[in-house]
Amino acid sequence: MLIKKADDVKSSEITDQKTYLNRRNFMRAAALAGTATATGLLYRQFAVPAGPEVRGEKIAVVQTPAAEIIPPIDEKLTPYQDITHYNNFYEFGTNKGGVAANAKNFVTRPWTVSVEGLVQRPKVFDLDEILRLAPAEERVYRMRCVEGWSMVIPWVGLPLAKLLKEVEPLGQAKYVAFETAADRKRGMQLPNALDWPYVEGLRLDEALHPLTILAHGLYGETLPPQNGAPLRLVVPWKYGFKGIKSIIKISLVEREPPTSWNLAASDEYGFYSNVNPEVSHPRWSQAREQRIGEFGKRDTLMFNGYAEQVAQIYAGMDLKRNF
Ligand code: MTE
């Protein structure tokens, strides 16, 4: 992820506490921004480190959902090695190529997810209970990172709606808030890069949309730690940072919940963060993207190619203002 560089911070901005806090975010971001630029040189930084592949366990039942619900994709899958060695998971460091090694010993069992808030039946679910809620489905989705690169990933997961229906959301529930574990005892490093825990949110209708899944695998195997084991969110029409990893808490709430990247730089990362080639990031265009493994850039598609499935839920909204 890219936030502002330290040079962008004017000395006039460091007078009161509010600007001090902004500056603190900029300074943290400076360390991160050094590694990538949204230029044509991006591809060079995608060299995936070699190294032993740590494979997950095979997932027993993998169903393919009906084509009328989940549009099939006629695009080449990104290789397993690239998906699992070019990662953003700041709890394990800010160097994409180092996350897999840093997360190797992440303890993901036992694991529970508390589903709470404005619901009839709040419950702390053991991971296995969640996995039993629905057959494992293979979902091949595009993933578009806000930084300008993309992949095609064969996730394995279940609809988030299946879990939410278990707890019976109340009428006042309008949003869903998600939280990642922030736990050094499990092996996380939690560097001074963001405020922990990592948090994300969706509108309730987005969360219940049939394309929205909780992924627990990829390429037919359990999710490796670096991709968000044991359970992470995948919302294919939004920028990749909405896909919060290693979830331990899901709360149904009345108001729009805070999200990590919006807290870090609200002018750069909005709550909705729908993929939109017409809305530029303040510091680069989002019109094109670099598919990992390809030479040359391709056009970015509105809603990442899922407009037919999702455009109607934003009917009447100003997507430039609600970016
Ligand atoms: N979730 C947590 N908890 N921490 C993170 O740093 N990074 C996000 C998202 N989920 C992140 C996270 C970003 S910026 C992206 S692009 C995707 O995860 C990357 O997912 P991947 O490594 O599986 O490709």
CATH architecture identity:
Alpha-Beta Complex
User: What kind of sheet is the major sheet?
Assistant: 7 strands, mixed
Structural class: alpha+beta
Number of strands: 12
CATH topology: Sulfite Oxidase, Chain A, domain 2
* C-alpha-based Rg, rounded: 19 Å
- Quick one: CATH superfamily? Oxidoreductase, molybdopterin-binding domain
Helix share of residues? 10-25%
Q: Tell me, what's the shape?
A: globular
Describe the fold and architecture.
This protein is 16% helix and 20% strand. By secondary structure, it is of the alpha+beta class. Mean pLDDT is 88; it is low at 5-45. The chain has a single domain (17-314), classed as Alpha-Beta Complex (Sulfite Oxidase, Chain A, domain 2), CATH 3.90.420. The strands form two sheets. Strands 3, 4, 7, 8, 9, 11 and 12 form a seven-stranded mixed beta sheet that branches. The protein has a five-stranded mixed beta sheet with strand order 2-1-10-5-6. It binds ligand MTE.
Q: Which secondary structure elements does this structure contain, and how are they paired or packed?
A:
Blueprint: H1 17-33, H2 80-83, H3 99-102, E1 112-117, E2 123-126, H4 127-131, E3 137-144, E4 149-159, H5 160-167, E5 175-180, E6 199-203, H6 204-208, E7 213-218, E8 221-222, E9 232-234, E10 247-253, H7 260-264, E11 288-291, E12 298-299, H8 307-310
Parallel strand pairs: 1-10, 4-11
Antiparallel strand pairs: 1-2, 3-4, 4-7, 5-6, 5-10, 7-8, 7-9, 11-12
Ligand MTE binds at residues 1, 87-91, 145, 180, 198, 227-228, 240-241, 243-246.
